[in-house]
Amino acid sequence: MAKFLIIQNPAAGNGSSSEYLPEVISTVEKLKIPYVLKQTSSKFDAQEHVKEWATPDITDIVVVGGDGTLNEVVNGLYPHLKPIRLISTGTGNDLVKNLKNHTMDNLFLTNEFNQIDLFTVNDRIGINALGLGFDGEVVSEMDEKDLKINGMFAYMIFVLSKLFKFRAPRYHITADGVDYRGKYYITCVGNGKAVGGGFFLTPKAHIEDGNLDICLIQDIPFLLRPYYLIKVILKIHPQDKKVIYKQFKEMVIRSSRVIMGQIDGQLVTGKEFVIKLLGEKLHIVSHKH
After folding, report:
1. Over the stretch 145-182, which tens digit does the pLDDT of each residue have?
2. Among 25, 48, 90, 176, fewest CB within 10 Å belongs to which?
3. What is the DSSP string of 202-236?
4. Domains of the chain
5. pTM for this structure?
């Protein structure tokens, strides 16, 4: 018999997650599915406590939060994963752009799960994407300023503020044995297609295909940066001569300086990032409000 663990992050989506919780609870109760509710109280609370919360009688985990909350849950559970029913209420909600959007009732009833790839970045598991350098600095500033808006518009504000200030680091990248060296303004590894609430940096990615995609945009003159931003928005950048777009399974990224990055919205820093596709799959279905 099914029994759900509902994990809700009240801070997700600048507090919008809490608006949907009554509907989640009323739907589960209407369907007569037993459940336990846990609400997080701080960053990484879900990661630290999910193994304790997911008692042996729990069959499925309902995540009410964003990509970052889901990342915490998966990192906390691994390698003992359980099926995830995601109600995406975060700031960017990029993972669900790769998944079918179920009705609330069907989200809790269906057993037709997507089986999506997972990857590691050093000792952390990633689900949707890793962004290094520019993307990491944008997400860091978003966290610091904490504007009460969500989606691509929120990300765009900080993209524009960084567009002319960011200085591209020099990288040595080895992907499946092939070396790439140079300064790259954009460095994004995608399991899914999008980051930042709708920037499709890896538009050819398929989250269940057993590969990761990388998009490298070479350092570009200041005056051309808006032009390349428009190309990314229109999803036509992979064909550009200043863009390297490849699929791979293992990669090492080394930077000339300590850089900031983000994995599913969670900040990381370092000079070396070892990325590997995992053999395990995450069983997941989703609903986006």
Report:
1. 766 666 677 788 888 889 999 999 999 999 999 999 99
2. 176
3. STT--TTSS-EEEEEEE---GGGHHHHHHHHHTT-
4. 4-117+282-288 (3.40.50.10330), 125-279 (2.60.200.40)
5. 0.94
